[in-house]
Amino acid sequence: MHRYRSHTCGALRESNIGETIRLSGWVHRVRDHGGVLFIDLRDHYGLTQCVVDPDSPAFAQAEKLRSEFVVKMDGKVRRRPEGTDNDELPTGKVEVYVSEIEVLGPAGDLPLPVFGDQEYPEDIRLKYRFLDLRREKLHQNIMTRGAVVDSLRKRMKEQGFFEFQTPILTASSPEGARDFVVPSRIHPGKFYALPQAPQQYKQLLMMSGFDRYFQIAPCFRDEDPRADRLPEFYQLDVEMSFVTQDDVFAAMEPVITGVFEEFANGKRVTRNWPRIPFAEALRKYGTDKPDLRNPIEMQDVSEHFRGSGFKVFARMLEDPKNQVWAIPGKGGGSRAFCDRMNSWAQGEGQPGLGYIMWREGGEGAGPLANNIGPDRTAAIREQLHLKEGDAAFFVAGDPEKFWKFAGMARTKVGEELNLIDKDQFAFAWIVDFPMYEYDEENKKVDFSHNPFSMPQGGLDALKSQDPLTIKAFQYDIACNGYEMASGGIRNHVPEAMVKAFEIAGYGEQEVVDRFGGMYRAFQYGAPPHGGMAAGLERIVMLLCGTNNLREISLFPMNQQYADLLMGAPSEATTKQLRELHVRVNLPQK
Prior knowledge:
By secondary structure, this protein is α+β, with helices and mostly antiparallel strands. 30% of the residues lie in helices and 24% in strands.
């Protein structure tokens, strides 16, 4: 028999009854039933109930066992007594009568419990992550992550993509976040950057003629901490040659849909994803990553308030850039709910949230209804397709300034009225992003998204249009209120690339200096190409039903980006700093 095990703790079935076997694993828990000890033994594969009674030669050793001891047990498989089957376990019809126990690794007092999934302070969980990972839910999340990666790889290869690995030590690139930099010992005073994404490399692969690339790519971004973002993450990185935007959608939509259907546990998954222009997404949902499980669509109701008796809105609308948006709330027509929404808005720093309720008989109620009169109130109700017992909430001013708050209000109304269908994954393509935006802080035009995207209209648009009106062949995948992926058709024309960066304040020489490899490649026959990148952690997070990336990552950092398990970041030694020609200049306390 093998030194440690003849079977795993998830393998035994009724067909093994009568066999003498050997198991090794962790003591999950010990139960004393009238002097008979029941030991649940756990390994990666499952859990087996082991029984030791006072007649067993192993009883004295069994009495010394505690949770998380690693032990080897020899014994005979027998059927569980009638009425004690556990249908939730694959091994639930059998048990092992133990004849011998050997302790392979004793365990001290546990800093956190492994049995059960009760909440525990995150700093303790991360410091003792090796214990945390033994817990069933987290262990299963990690296994789901691995299975999702396998599924993505399989589906990408079925679509004709080839997997390549790109460098980790590279040059700095303007991807929208700070780089992690690595000092060079060989080149004093110079630094590598860890890739925020393999953007340039995957485009260079298209220049090299590889046609269809993908990679489960590690990426590094020195961003401020957030629950749904980590400094080190992975993405499904994709690039294709000789493609239009429609070709990218046709290749990737079945991959993502298929993975979600495989792991959705019965939840519905969108087929034939809608395509929503960026401006329309802001207008209807108040976000460029709408949660389409929420049926609420905001509408412009400015005409019903223009010249009305509600002077606050009427005066605002004298400025042509101002509008009034309505957020319909079906089933929200009670004074208590409307007052609660108003209080919520004040808690978000707003003066309040105007509303109209429709009472029995269809008559509008509330201060706004009283001011604008029954005809206008009825017209609003008709436009929004509301009925008795419903309400509408109103946000007014310059949409450029209030759309984010309007989106938050839409989400709040949907959540409070239980309108969100949580039994589905609702996907959409968000398209037609603006190429540029105005940077108020630096008083300049800058890229709004990916600087390597092709502007709609190409070089002619860059030369003749107001930059802030130019749209890009740029797109996102939105799912349940999260941005899951981002991509675009690339700007592969050298003159257009230089012009695009020039508008954002980069001179041609700076473009050559910073993106020399790609700029040179464009001079020697560049195919039209495009692609996208989908966040692996976001995909797994949604499939596992959590909103914290630390629940689906093996060894994550805490919210201050510290690795409590390994003690990183840590100070470098004087010898290391001297070899790297680096001097530390700490801020004064």
